[in-house]
Amino acid sequence: MATRVPPPSAFRMGYFKAPAVSEVTPHLIPPRTTLVELVTEGVIYFRTDSGDMKLGCGALFWHIPGEETIHRTEASDPYECLALAFINPSRSPRPVPRLSIIADHQKTRELCSELLTAYQDDKIDRDVLEKYAYSRMLWEAHLSTAQHSSALHPTALEASLAFVEAEFRRPEIGVIDLARAAKLSEPHIHTLFREHIGQTPHQFLTARRIREAKWQLTRTGATIKAISTDCGFLNIETFYRAFKKTVGTTPFHFRQSNSVPLLENL
């Protein structure tokens, strides 16, 4: 049975820019406090049982009382992060892992901007914003854990995954580009993808393009040909083959079956 986590009762939000040093003074998380830190820029080092991890944009930390805030960085590339402090009415367990990764850097920065803008707007109801901020951070951490249920990825693989997220719309990119982003050989990047993702680099890249195509098919009125091009496929024939192989139906029938208005059959 899942542990019921009581909702937070108060919160504060701020944006922290570390100075150009290798380590800042950490803060101890006080009782009844949950502190969430979302890295948006720079480098952060985090110690795990297997050694130090070098992390960057998208690293999401969920701290509970007695733990320290992130504090080790690089003077040449100090980290920046959004920090949210939630005051809980009673002691509660951590609902997600302490560290998770939001792979999409653009999404990370947009989330940070959205929350900060709302927090600085006097017209926004703080109680509503608090619940949204807590739930959104909880969702992003849960989503990361669900998508990457194995151990956290090696830094080189994270670099390759970030490259896919940023460049998948370009039809000319391939496995050699993913290897270069990770600064590894093609055989080595193949091995990492199989061990940690369960797919080849090509399969992963295709799956990312298909995921974007599914989103556009159900949420936009763009033509299938335009969607094919925007999602990084060389031509519409290649798109149809890849889509049907992955999804089990054509883009046209997928759009038809997933675009029915919610209330139509009620």
Care to describe what's here?
This protein is α+β, with helices and mostly antiparallel strands and 266 residues long. The chain has 2 domains: 10-147, Jelly Rolls (Sandwich), CATH 2.60.120.280; 155-258, Arc Repressor Mutant, subunit A (Orthogonal Bundle), CATH 1.10.10.60. The chain is built from 9 helices and 8 strands. A hairpin with a 2-residue loop joins strand 3 (44-48) and strand 4 (51-55). Helix 4 packs across helix 5 (186-196) and helix 6 (201-219) packs across helix 9. The chain is globular and about 60 Å long. Residues 1-9 and 262-266 have low confidence and may be disordered.
Briefly characterize the structure.
The chain is α+β, with helices and mostly antiparallel strands and 266 residues long. It has helices at 105-119, 126-147, 155-167, 175-182, 186-196, 201-219, 224-230, 236-247, 251-258; strands at residues 10-17, 33-41, 44-48, 51-55, 59-63, 72-73, 80-87, 99-101.
